[in-house]
Specification:
It is built from one helix and eight strands; from the N terminus they run E-E-E-E-E-E-E-E-H. The chain is mainly beta. The chain has one domain. The chain has a four-stranded antiparallel sheet with strand order 3-4-5-8, covered by helices on one side. Strands 1-2 form a two-stranded antiparallel ribbon. The longest helix is centred in the last third of the chain and has 8 residues, at about 115-124.
Length: about 120
């Protein structure tokens, strides 16, 4: 599981079990901003709005593009390892989607191409 770290965390290791300080979880580390991303390989800030767009690599079937508004106070849970995109991953059905931020766009591996370059183009 990956987490988005604040700048002061650049040289610190993040523990996924110690997240969510901004959402009232005791014992959480302040450098964790958001969690539940599997493998965010590209991200970009919108120059006009400050919003954050994240291209996250899925596990088996789906890739996703996630969104975090500039006004966010942090603590978002993007769903991994329960969700892959908008689909249940573990368990494969009947998973709890409560409190999770689902992607704004997802696509199947069956499409055969990546949309992350598109993400970079629209936000750069």
């Amino acid at each position: 599981m990956c987490a988005i770290l604040s700048r002061r965390a650049a040289n610190l290791a993040a523990r996924p079990d110690a997240i969510g300080k901004r959402r009232g979880r005791s014992g959480a580390r302040g450098e964790i901003w958001a969690y539940g991303l599997r493998n965010p390989w590209r991200f970009s800030f919108d120059r006009e709005t400050g919003d954050l767009w994240i291209a996250d690599v899925g596990q088996n079937d789906f890739e996703e593009i996630d969104f975090q508004p500039a006004a966010s106070t942090g603590g978002e849970n993007y769903g991994w390892k329960v969700m892959e995109g908008t689909h249940c991953y573990s368990p494969q059905s009947g998973c709890d989607q409560g409190g999770k931020v689902l992607p704004v766009y997802e696509y199947s591996h069956a499409s055969g191409c990546s949309r992350a370059a598109w993400l970079w183009t629209i936000t750069s």
